[in-house]
Design a protein that fits this description.
The protein is of the alpha+beta class. Helices cover 35% and strands 19% of the residues. It has helices at residues 21-26, 28-48, 103-123, 139-151, 165-175, 208-216, 241-253, 265-273, 294-301, and strands spanning 9-15, 58-66, 72-81, 83-85, 92-94, 156-162, 186-190, 193-197, 203-206, 227-231.
């Protein structure tokens, strides 16, 4: 992809607590939008912090809503550049190869941004509080939920960093448009139900109605965009800041000019005189050198130093 920079990348996953599951199911679009924005703002804010990196990162976020057994579990996978463009745009600032930001700092900042946005949506009446969420219509109940969530450690973890742009290509190709379950994970469908693979070689079997229910949990709202770009990769920056970042990275990676190889004396002779000593002047074939036995050739060519025999008869 043209948006992938020639640098190392990190893989960071942001997850919301299970206490928000019912609210997220009933308010998919606003909760998913808030999940995206909170995760991206967390990364970009820490990236711009002069005490950490002091640069603008590039972030691609991908929404997943499932576990391996198809339960509802909203989380975003963020592919983050290993460094960013300096505020003045005059250089690329690289991060360490195996470390981006402390996980605890990521978790606390993400939690604060998400809950602040959730409280604002609640106050503006933007959340559907019917059905299983009816109790949350009471501000005191909602306040208790918010206090409980503030006391929790939210799950943010950094997966193994991408080895390079090639792995980013592979990840984007395989996972950005994946659905809750793929055909190769289906094992059987019989009177017992639907059997499919989960993880670590395990399998689970559920009744057909339950399988269909779990599968439909992961149907996104109509027109919802599940892959989003931020920072250097935002649409307003791809032709300006992203291009500038690429220019700096490619300039840094440009190899030093190699010194020309030394010419042989035959090549020097050809350049000076135009006569190719490596080509036979008769047959135009390549000249072949053979090892010379100096003693045998000298003996054959040189005259004898002893006087001639005289005929005494």
């Amino acid at each position: 992809m043209e948006y992938v920079l020639p640098t190392h990348y990190f893989h960071v996953v942001f997850t919301i607590p299970h206490e928000l599951g019912a609210l997220a199911l009933r308010n998919r679009k606003p909760i998913f939008d808030l999940l995206f924005s909170s995760a991206a703002r967390t990364l970009l804010e820490l990236g711009q912090d002069e005490h950490r990196l002091g640069a603008q990162l590039g972030v691609t976020a991908v929404l997943h809503t499932w576990t391996r057994d198809l339960r509802f579990h909203p989380h975003v996978h963020c592919i983050v550049t290993g460094g960013g463009l300096a505020p003045q745009g005059d250089r690329w600032i690289s991060s360490r190869q195996k470390y981006l930001f402390p996980v605890r700092v990521l978790s606390a900042l993400f939690r604060g941004k998400f809950l602040d946005g959730l409280a604002r949506a609640y106050e503006r009446g933007e959340l559907d509080l019917g059905g299983a969420c009816a109790e949350l219509a009471n501000p005191e109940v909602f306040g208790c939920l918010k206090d409980t969530l503030y006391r929790k450690d939210w799950v943010v973890y950094a997966k193994r960093p991408f080895a390079g742009p090639e792995q980013v290509f592979k990840y984007l190709g395989q996972y950005t448009h994946r659905v809750g379950i793929s055909n190769h994970r289906l094992v059987s469908f019989d009177t017992r139900g639907v059997c499919f693979r989960t993880k670590n070689g395990k399998q689970v079997t559920v009744a057909p109605p339950e399988f269909i229910r779990r599968f439909l949990l992961h149907v996104l709202p109509e027109g919802f965009v599940k892959v989003r770009h931020y920072g250097l990769l935002a649409s307003s920056n791809v032709h300006t800041k992203l291009a500038e970042a690429r220019r700096h990275l490619e300039a840094n990676d440009k190899p030093a000019l190699a010194s020309p190889p030394q010419q042989t004396w035959q090549e020097q002779h050809l350049a000076l005189t135009g006569v190719d000593l490596a080509t036979c002047p008769r047959c135009s074939g390549p000249m072949v050198s053979h090892p010379l036995d100096y003693r045998s050739s000298h003996a054959a060519a040189a005259p004898s130093s002893s006087p001639p025999l005289m005929d005494t008869s």
